[in-house]
Amino acid sequence: MTAWDLAVVGAGPAGAATALGALRVNPALRVALLDRADFPRDKSCGDGIAPQVIDLLDEAGVSGIVNDRVPVPRLRLDRGSFGVDRKMTRPTWVVPRTVFDQRLVRAAQTAGATLVRHRVRRLVQGSTLILDDEVEARTLVGADGAHSVIRRALGLDPGPMAVAIRGYSPTPASRSGQQVIVFDTARQPAYAWSFDRGDGLSNVGYGELLDHRRDGPTRAQMLERLDTLLPGATDGGTDWKGHQLPLSTGRWRPPAGRVMLVGDAAGLVNPMTGEGIYYAVATGLAAGRAAARALAAGDPTTAGARCASAIQPLLGGHLRHVAVAAWLCRHGSVIDAGLRASAVDQRVFDDLVELGLANGRITTAMARGLVRELAGASRSRGLRRRRNDTEESPA
Ligand SMILES: Cc1cc2nc3c(=O)[nH]c(=O)nc-3n(C[C@H](O)[C@H](O)[C@H](O)COP(=O)(O)OP(=O)(O)OC[C@H]3O[C@@H](n4cnc5c(N)ncnc54)[C@H](O)[C@@H]3O)c2cc1C
Predict the structure, then answer these.
(1) Which of 204, 222, 245 is the last residue of a domain?
(2) Ligand 1 pocket, mutate which of 105, 219, 277 (most atoms under 8 A from CB)
(3) What is the pLDDT of residues 339-386, one digit of tens each?
(4) Atom of ligand 1 nearest to the CA of 244
(5) Is 114 in a helix, a strand, or coil?
(6) Which of 279, 273, 280, 277 is nearest to 208 (CA)?
(7) What is the reported pLDDT for 215?
(8) Is the CB of 13 under 6 A from ligand 1?
(9) How many domains are there within the chain?
(10) Where a domain ends, among 321, 349, 367?
(11) 219: domain range?
């Protein structure tokens, strides 16, 4: 049986970042990156890479990963007849996952990780950790995505889920150089997107929160909503691929011990936007470093606690704030107020982007803007009602 210091199950952004984090602390560690797929492999995703992801990778010694890609400077947010279109503080990137994930895996291999093609089915925890009677490890990280086998082996529930579908279609001039998000008014919370890749194609898609009281949308229904919200977005579309998104809650608690969970396996997708790559890379790096330090200290069982104390200051407060924001976004009137406040004040827009793409919080500017716009909308409704009453009353 092969014995490893650290076995990482799943070689997506969370898994590759885990290997990078560990090997940055101790390049001599024996790190296995196990994945059921051959790389490069596709992953259903909007392919939106926030600049904060690039910052994290830079800190971990991986630079230039998007240097040959076209930055996307603008973000447009629409709902019904109202929209806001602004330049972001820093541009984002749209990189197909066949490219992005492959680059991260390569970086992990260059750092010293061994990529192993293996579908993990079973974990046995004893004095060491054994996967499928074939792989032995002193520490383990589950980075195996939304339907994580490792999370199940730890007896943890997946939590709330969303579902989304994406494809690639030609970019019309009206959506060039932009990330466009159109919030649904018929089904909620849900939105369609079009993210310009900068090479003539856009990543287009539609996603919505799954409600356990009713059936989720079919593929045909999701494509119909996409085309309704972004007319023409499905024309010439290829590579349609759907997947579930395990959404974070404000109550996230990382497991203790020598087995850790990161990224989607840890139930970490932003519940307001569906972005998960920032969390995947942030938690992966933290878990890798924690494993390396626990091994160096001679006690692998402290890895989980070390990982938790590194992640808590980075994500703890943010996850609580974004859970509140996501709950508020179930009300169309709050989304409308958020868009109007963002149109009035660039600061509110920037704060919203930070909350949706990385680890921002609900700021004072955002809260004030929301309250002002909600109060304004309520006053306008009152005025309209009074006018209607006056018109209807007999002379
Ligand atoms: C339609 C859609 C759009 C999205 N858009 C965005 C976006 O624009 N920006 C953003 O930041 N996030 C987006 N997300 C979320 C993002 O895709 C995920 O959060 C991200 O992929 C999480 O990375 P990960 O490494 O945790 O998991 P994954 O990328 O899912 O990687 C998990 C890996 O584990 C492997 N694996 C699974 N099971 C096993 C097993 N039993 N044994 C071995 N290997 C296994 C898989 O092959 C895979 O390579 C979107 C998600 C969806 C579904």
Answers:
(1) 245
(2) 277
(3) 999 999 999 999 999 999 999 999 999 999 999 999 998 888 777 777
(4) 53
(5) strand
(6) 273
(7) 85
(8) yes
(9) 3
(10) 321
(11) 68-95+161-245
